[in-house]
Structures are given as structure tokens and as C-alpha cells.
């Protein structure tokens, strides 16, 4: 059964102050399966008050105690994996096996930050006089406002929550209205672990109203947002007007470069799985496939063969589920139609699957020209557009052409080429000859229009800390 979702404020699950709710739709059936409470300004004020009180408690708690509590939450979340996976599959559409991996990955994120929080070291700076002591210490930045998307309802929220808590901050999370229940189940794991009141607060509602109110509020010191580039720019500008620290993980259009000396079978196996995971609704999804002319035909043939094996549906045997809503289906239809009109060849797929649900066929396009919309606009769906290149410089020119810079991929048998790619590719993350992004201990973030800052690894924790310099005389 799918649970209705309430707000979590000051350690209590509660209805919105005015009792309003938003319907939650199962994208596989297009049927309403539940509701989520819609927060109003009174609820946000309550959350702000709670977060301020929670901060006072949490930042003064022994760091070992904070770490132990977070690890208990990770253990509880692992115990909830079956229930959380079923709920996530219902509201988001991804297969249960994918949802299960997301839940378990989230628990790993909590564990990692629980330990990293114990290493928020300061330092001593040698002074110029023997009677002076110079110290650098790290302190929590304060109350955090976090905004999370629907495509990874647990993993996107948990990165923000775990980083904030490890640094000693309290947090208000604006969760995804499309996929609220699995996000709430993750927060419930912290509640059951004993998180003090007000340290974590979870609200849902109209995104623009909540973001504008929280970002401009004086209680909030730090903003973390995951979502589209246009919205991210607006929120970053608002945060800048109020001198708020930001982390922005925005859109991407990841190039995938396949060189003539690559292991084609290995590349196809990796890329078919990663391209169509979550129906392509992933910001780091391999998107623009750049194929060197010597292997282009072979790669396309093998990629199409494996793509045709993907089972689309909403049962436990499915490899790919539906898109999140009707708008995504219409967007993918528009991009595919435009690519074909521009001269691309439709190798497989390209159509909505008839019947209930927002299902779209896994699609491969070859010979896609750079003026096609799909080569310039993030598709965020199950479409793999492919084009050829001649030499290394051509590939780099196309890979760096757009003002996105989140993730990039490459496959080559040359160590020399690997070294050149590491220098020349303009992106926050680059994975060569495997799919190695998104694990807890590594940075996760982009450059250019793909964002600012990172949400993984030790660097993520630093953005939730302020550096304080203390210089004092040493008295006898």
C-alpha cells in the first residue's frame, strides 16, 4: 500500500496548517495513489523556528554522538529497503531492483558522512611571536535549506542531509512532490534513530513559493539545490542577493567519446545499462554519443542489438520503467521528431508505448547533426543520439561545445589518450573505460552551467562549514 505523506517539523509528522494536499500519481498507471501535504507560509515559519532550535542542540552535541546517531539511521534505512523500494517504484516508476540499489546506496552515504564528520579538523598556524597563538577552527554554517528532485527521491535528499548533519548543521528539506513517500521513509529512519527535534525538517508544496521564502529568510545560512539549470540560476541569484552560501547541482548533457581503440563489447555493455537506467532521467546520463569513424558502424549495431533486449514495464522483471509524467513523454517525442527531420536515422524505438502509463521505447538515433535540438538540449529520457568524429581534436571540440559541464565519459585503449582527456575535457566529472560516478567518497558536481560546488566526498562537507581564525596572546 502507498502511504499518504505528511510534513515533518520539529520531530513530528503533521498535516499542513491549512490541511491542503497534492495528489501523487503512479507514472505506470496514470492513477492517483496518494497525497502529500502542501506546506503554506505558516508551516515554513514553524520549520524555520524548529530548525533554529535544532541547530542549537545539534551543533553542541558531541561529534562522536552525532556520528553514532547517523550510523544508527543508516542501519534502520537498510532494514527498510524492501518497503522503501516498493514505495519508490510506485511513485517514481523505476524498477524495484533499481530502487533497492538507491536505498542501499543512501545508507552508505549516511555511513560515510557519519565518519567524515569526525574529521572536521582545524589547524595551528605558526605565529611570528612566541606570545601569540593562531588557530583555525571549523564550525557549522547554520540552518540549511535544501531542494531535492524527483528522479532520485532518496539519494538526492540524503546527500544534503548527511552532509549537513555531519557538519553540525540543521536542515529544512523541500522534498519532491512527485515522489514524496520514499523521501519521507528515509527521514523516518533518522527519526527512529533518535535525531533531536528540529534537526531535520521535511516540507512539500509549491516549489517557487517555498524556495523564495526560505532562501530570503534570515534564519537560513546555506542553500543546496539539485534541479534544472534555469531554476538553479534564479535561486543562485536570489541567494546572492542575501549573501547565502550555495551548492548547485544542475543539468548536464554528458558526452560519451568512443575511440577506435576502445573495447567495443565492454563499452556497449556499460553504456546500454547506464543510458537507460531510470529511463534516462539522470543528470549524469550518457547523452551525446561521439563515435570515431573506424568503429562507428560496429558500435551502433551492437548498441542497437542490446537496446532491443530492454524489457519496458512496471513489474519485477522489467529493465526500464516509465517516464515521470506526460510532459516528459511529449518532450522526448518532440526531440526525436526534430532529430529525424534534421537528418538523423531512427535505429530503434522512437515512439510512446500505447496503453496506460508514461512509457517510451528505448531509442537510438544515428547520424544526428549538431543543429538538432537533442544535441543542444538535455533530453532527460531514454534516447541515445549518436554522431561520428574523425580525430581527437574533433571529439574534444564537440564534447566541450555546450555550456554544460557535469559529467563526461570516454572509452579508449590508449593511456596517452586517457591522460589527454583528463586535461582537455571540461566537466566536473570524467569516467574513463567504466561507469564510476556517484559513490559517497568521491566529488559529485559540475562546472559552467552545470552548477557550483560538490555533493560528494570530503569537499561536500566543507561547504557546510565556516572557517574561523582565532589569534590570541598566551598569558602566563
Automatic annotation (TrEMBL):
Protein origin, superkingdom: Bacteria
Keyword Cell membrane: no
Domain Aldehyde dehydrogenase: 13-469
Bilayer-spanning residue ranges: none
Keyword match Metal-binding: no
A Pfam family that the UniProt record links to this protein: Aldedh
Keywords: Oxidoreductase
Molecular-function GO terms, alphabetical: oxidoreductase activity, acting on the aldehyde or oxo group of donors, NAD or NADP as acceptor
UniProt similarity note: Belongs to the aldehyde dehydrogenase family.
Name this protein carries in UniProt: NAD-dependent succinate-semialdehyde dehydrogenase
